Amino acid sequence: MNKKLYIYGAISVLLAVAPFFLNAYWVDVLNMIGIYAILALSLNLIVGHAGLFNLGHAAFYAVGAYTAAILNTKFGIPILWLLPASALAAGLFALIIARPIIHLRGDYLCIATIGAGEIVRIALINDIFGITGGPNGIFGIARPVVFDFVIRRPHEFYYFIWLFVAVTIFFFRRLENSRFGRALNYLREDEVAAEGSGINTTHYKLGCFVLGAAWAGMAGDIFAAKMTIIAPESFNFWESVVMFAIVILGGSGSIPGVLLGSFLFVGLPEMFRDFADARMMIFGLAMIIMMIFRTQGILPPTPRTYPVEITEKARVHG
Amino acid sequence: MEDFFQQLTNGLTIGSIYALVALGYTMVYGVLKLINFAHGDLFTIGAYLGLTLLTSMGLSDRLGPFLGIIVLVLMVMGLLAILGALLDRAAYRPLRESPRLSAVVSALGASIFLQNTVMLIYGARSQAYPADIIPMTALDIFGLYIPVARILVLVVSFILMAALYLYIQKTRVGTAIRAAAIDQGAARLMGIDVNRVILYVFLIGPALGGVAGVMVGLLYGQIQFTMGWAFGLKAFTAAILGGIGNIPGAMVGGILLGIIEALGAQYISIAWKDAIAFGVLILILIVRPTGLLGERVADKI
Amino acid sequence: MSLLTLKNLTKSFGGLMAVNDVSFDVEEGSIIGLIGPNGAGKTTVFNLITGNHRPDRGEIIFNGIHITGMLTHRIVSLGIGRTFQTIRLFQNLTALENVLAGRHARMKSGATGAMLRTPGQKREERDALASALRELSFVGLQEQANQLARNLSYGNQRLLEIARALATEPRLVILDEPASGMNEQETTLLIDLIRMIRDRKITILLIEHDMSLVMRACERIVVLEYGSKIAEGPPSAIKEDPKVIEAYLGTGD
């Protein structure tokens, strides 16, 4: 247990000082890893913990990004203030999308989320309501400002993004070890038994969709602020696949696994730029091989254990 | 009114291609309860292999357009059948005893792998089918001018579908496939070799999907390495529409979806054509997940 | 007074009559056995009570409330816990977490409370843990608290299901073949456990194939055949009932 703590401590320190030793290019790679980590952690609630196959997560990411971009460019609302707006819009959108399809079984739900994700992308391309800017998207999104300090350079974004990653880990760890988190696991393991144990399974399925989507929406806000320009192609099906693959290969339901997955999926290809074209091919192959030889992913979750000394007390009482 | 009939024949043509691809999804789903995500990419590979064979062997020059296309179709079918069986052997068979969702992930992986392999071999740019294989003329049928390519696609796909239908209904293997789709366990108890059925399904489905790829090349003149994704998703929609696991259902569903899409593009909006198809998908999943020809099954508790 | 009342319950699956016009009462504080040959519709009756199936006709009244067609988790929170004929544990979670699932219905905190770790949430978690451990000890599995459910023996898995059902604080617990797969010694302990549950003022309705268990443990027995009730009464009367004897001998069960 302590050994683990040291490892995490060392990694945190390493991440905190990394920008001092890296050039802008590599810091930017780390920034993208951070954004994917947030996205994959949010998808992990749905796919990893609740076992619901969602291959349309990019749609929620898109709703968050476009909400922030539109409100910022049209009304000049600072991009950081729009984090809650992005979360709200994406969460609400998830509720509307998921409500009618949530009862579908495994692969049916999966295919429905793919369809929904594609409809969103097509709607963005077709400039729905005349506010999404069509295939070219939206440009001129303002940089985030913290107390008169404008976050502009990759090094500055780095701390902003990874702070958000840290906050996400902090909250999601607590969530895992709670009534909410356990309920998601119960419904992943056996839906009928979960309902029979008194768990409102529909409520929790929707709950994890809404919460995961809201978090992806905030990632969208950060992405919009970082890029200052967004377009529909940043939110296509393959983005959903990458998030999904990070969760499955890293370790479904495991925060360290998902973080490692983000580094491998987004960072490794940058190290082997000569093989950049082969990146997706190798990932596809890795997905097959992992499913055959290590279904649970690289760093699977360790079972939650609870202090057993209470057992002694319980025995006295019982 | 003429627009309407033009769109109808157009939809019928696209729909028959969807139907051919949908058959592969529905047969695999029927027997293995698995969405073979890689099936759309086998369709793409069919289109690319067809192009390679056409240009490298000069089939149509040597044999004339019609015989050339028949030989081409047969060769692509054979190659894709082998590829289909290999895909099952490599990506799905090791996972027969695993949770179903592991196989779904493997299928996604296989799809990504195949699609990007095609890209690495042929390049990311779209490729053109030789324009001179099929006469560019249109036939006048009851006052409707219908391009020869469209008629060819319709004829080939209807022959293949009729052949498959007879095969499934009249032969022992066909009966075994239908039985395994209804209840694998019971089929096994009746002495049916389910592993053989699975093999047949992975030979027949990709063969038909490959032909569909060639026909898309002949019809549109252009192919892309990503085309299997959208085509595959629509074909899967067709399979669901007809009732997944149900072979005649896939044929009906494919043609129906083609017509809905063509008419939707004409009378609603061409830009929303794909969204209409995916909307149909979600709607059918919500309203009647068992499809038009499927039957409701109760879950056992 | 009657805790659970079934009135003219009828359910068919695609033309097959699974439960046909079944009525009976379950008195508060009693142990009732539901028996019958294979396919008599016993499990279907259970699934109707717990809301897994919706009856075609008839009424189910629990504690004065109509629960016909209610969602399962609502019925659980009203006070009916159950176990399953084929074990349905959360196999990849620990024994303790399986029991915590039962506590869920008696807890309130949600996602926000968990993320902010409010004092109320912390207290609730602590209490839930303590009472889950109490239920584990009650069925004798305290030593296995942190073991994964799938690593438990078959008999212990059955006990764990009972602990999970008890953790929902039920007034009525429904046991579907609790002794199946247990050896004789385990079955004897199970009978003791069933009596201990009753001593906690919890009413018990059980399906069982093991006749000796039913005769020893139950105070009243309801017999089903082909979906219909053919007899009802104390074990001594059921043993002598010609209809029951015929139903069992006739089918060779």
Nutshell version of this structure?
The complex is a heterotrimer of chains A (318), B (301) and C (253). Chain A is an all-alpha fold and 318 residues long. Chain A is 71% helix and 3% strand.
Q: Structural class of the secondary elements of chain C? A: alpha/beta
Number of strands of chain A: 4
State the low-pLDDT regions of chain A, or none. Answer: 311-318
Q: What is the general shape of chain C? A: globular
Strand content of chain C: 15-25%
Instruction: Kindly report the spatial arrangement of strands forming the biggest sheet of chain C.
Output: 6-7-8-3-9-10
| Mass-distribution shape of chain A | globular
How do the strands line up in the largest sheet of chain A? 1-4
How would a textbook summarize the main sheet of chain A?
Answer: 2 strands, antiparallel
The count of strands of chain C amounts to 10
Kindly describe this structure:
- The complex is a heterotrimer of chains A (318), B (301) and C (253).
- Chain A is mainly α and 318 residues long.
- Chain A has helices at residues 2-21, 24-49, 57-75, 83-101, 106-125, 154-176, 179-189, 191-196, 201-227, 237-251, 255-271, 279-293, 309-317; strands spanning 138-139, 145-146, 149-150, 229-230.
- Chain A is built from 13 helices and four strands.
- In chain A, strands 1-4 form a two-stranded antiparallel ribbon. In chain A, strands 2-3 form a two-stranded antiparallel sheet.
- Chain A is globular, with a radius of gyration of 20 Å.
- By secondary structure, chain B is mainly alpha-helical.
- Chain B has helices at residues 2-32, 39-57, 59-63, 65-92, 100-122, 148-170, 172-182, 184-189, 194-220, 227-242, 247-267, 273-287; strands at residues 127-128, 138-141, 144-147, 222-223.
- In chain B, the strands form two sheets. In chain B, strands 1-4 form a two-stranded antiparallel ribbon.
- In chain B, helix 2 (39-57) runs antiparallel to helix 4 (65-92), helix 2 crosses helix 9 and helix 7 (172-182) crosses helix 9.
- Chain B starts with a helix and ends in a 14-residue tail after the last helix.
- The mean pLDDT of chain B is 87.
- Chain C is of the alpha/beta class.
- Chain C has a domain at 2-79 and 170-251: P-loop containing nucleotide triphosphate hydrolases (Rossmann fold).
- In chain C, the strands form two sheets. Chain C has a six-stranded mixed β-sheet with strand order 6-7-8-3-9-10, sandwiched between helices.
- The longest helix of chain C has 20 residues, at 119-138.
- The relative contact order of chain C is 0.18.
- The chains are: A mainly alpha (318), B mainly alpha (301), C alpha/beta (253).
- Chains in contact: A-B, A-C, B-C.
- At the A-C interface, helix 6, helix 7, helix 8, helix 9 and helix 13 of A face helix 2, helix 3, helix 4 and helix 5 of C.
